[in-house]
Amino acid sequence: MKQTNIQGVFKYKNQIYTENQTKKIKVYNEKIVRYKNKEFRSWNPYRSKLAAGILNGLKFEIKSTDNVLYLGAATGTTISHISDITKKGTIYAVENSPIALKKFLKVCEKRKNIIPILEDANHPNRLSLIVPKVDFLYQDISQRNQSEIFIKNAKTYLKKNGLGILMVKARCIDVSLKPKKAYDLVCFDLKKNKFQINDIVDLYPFEKDHAVVVITG
């Protein structure tokens, strides 16, 4: 088990892992490996776009003490691994589907650094009584205005020089556009709003027509 260049992410036999903060408890039937009296959960790139990005060379910094605003929590696959990494921080997890949130709550019951929030990320002002300024913003939302949602939340909650990760879903933006053109449009919006783009990585072969963009606020 070898530490990667991303804090809290480890690699073993071409697979990546995070150290399990809820011993013996799985989230999505992932493999558990024990190494030097510690327990590690395999991070499946076909189930998590962030894992796909990391395996494709994505570079970003995250600390164990970071507070995170996560938009599009779904049922908790990716967020459970971020919970392993930011074990001393707090994750404010926003999901607008009551059905997904119901499943996600089972993850939150075991992971005390996650605060689940049933809300629409299109309206960041509705989160203001719960969410403080954060070190890290993560978004994975399948909507046409995904870059607009990300920008509004980043301007509201991301600390100065904080880090943001946006999962870009090209077909949700415009099915008639080539994916590269959709990514370019998102990057144009981010630059226009004074965000610095640090990295952009295509998620193929794990995900088709998806890319991940890393920005500094």
Features:
alpha/beta; about 30% strand; single chain; seven-stranded mixed beta sheet; 6 helices; about 220 residues; globular; Rossmann fold; five-stranded antiparallel beta sheet
Protein model, in words:
This protein is α/β, with parallel strands linked by helices and 217 residues long. It has helices spanning 49-55, 77-85, 98-110, 146-157, 170-173, 179-192, and strands at residues 2-3, 10-12, 15-19, 32-35, 38-43, 68-71, 91-95, 114-118, 134-139, 158-169, 196-202, 210-216. The protein has one domain (45-216): 3-Layer(aba) Sandwich (Rossmann fold), CATH 3.40.50. 27% of the residues lie in helices and 30% in strands. It has a seven-stranded mixed beta sheet. Strand 11 (196-202) and strand 12 form a beta hairpin. 44% of the residues are buried. The mean pLDDT is 95.
Secondary-structure blueprint:
Blueprint: E1 2-3, E2 10-12, E3 15-19, E4 32-35, E5 38-43, H1 49-55, E6 68-71, H2 77-85, E7 91-95, H3 98-110, E8 114-118, E9 134-139, H4 146-157, E10 158-169, H5 170-173, H6 179-192, E11 196-202, E12 210-216
Parallel strand pairs: 6-7, 6-9, 7-8, 9-10
Antiparallel strand pairs: 1-2, 2-3, 3-5, 4-5, 10-12, 11-12
> Separation of termini?
33 Å
Q: Fraction of residues in helices? A: 25-40%
> Any idea what the shape is?
globular
Q: Rg to the nearest angstrom?
A: 16 Å
CATH class: Alpha Beta
- The CATH architecture is 3-Layer(aba) Sandwich
Q: What is the residue-mean pLDDT, rounded to a whole number?
A: 95
Strand order of the largest sheet: 8-7-6-9-10-12-11
Range of strand content: 25-35%
Task: Flag low-confidence runs.
Answer: none
CATH topology: Rossmann fold
